[in-house]
Design goal:
The structure is a single chain. This protein is of the alpha+beta class. 61% of the residues lie in helices and 12% in strands. It has one domain. The protein has 3 helices and 4 strands, in the order ββααββα. The chain has a two-stranded antiparallel ribbon. Strands 3-4 form a two-stranded antiparallel sheet.
């Protein structure tokens, strides 16, 4: 008896179980993958926006506030565990970098499902 054919979508291999079940699973994995990638880009945007002085009340400042509200709960987990790196009198927050690394590891594990 030959094995069931598999569907390869989004680099995820899902065995055929029924006409719609594998598509729902693959679709769900793909949506989770897209949300995680968008969230990763929001973390990058937050880090880049922190390098500039933003005029209060301007569009970039409002966008920065929205991005900060979206990413702060996730980054706060790492900020509590990892203290700011000190270089002289300046502290560098590494939570965004560590958060991105953990998020990319989770995305990689998701893709390998």
């Amino acid at each position: 008896m030959s094995p069931r054919p598999a569907v390869r979508v989004c680099e995820c291999i899902v065995p055929r179980v029924g006409p719609f079940k594998e598509y729902r699973l693959v679709s769900l994995l793909y949506v989770v993958y897209l949300v995680a990638m968008v969230y990763a880009w929001l973390i990058v945007a937050r880090a880049v926006m922190s390098w500039f002085r933003l005029r209060p009340g301007g569009l970039p400042a409002r966008l920065s506030r929205v991005v900060s509200r979206l990413t702060e709960p996730y980054l706060r987990l790492f900020r509590r565990a990892i203290p700011a790196a000190r270089i002289g009198s300046v502290g560098i927050d590494l939570s965004a970098m560590v958060g991105l690394i953990v998020l990319f590891i989770a995305i990689d594990m998701l893709v390998r499902l």
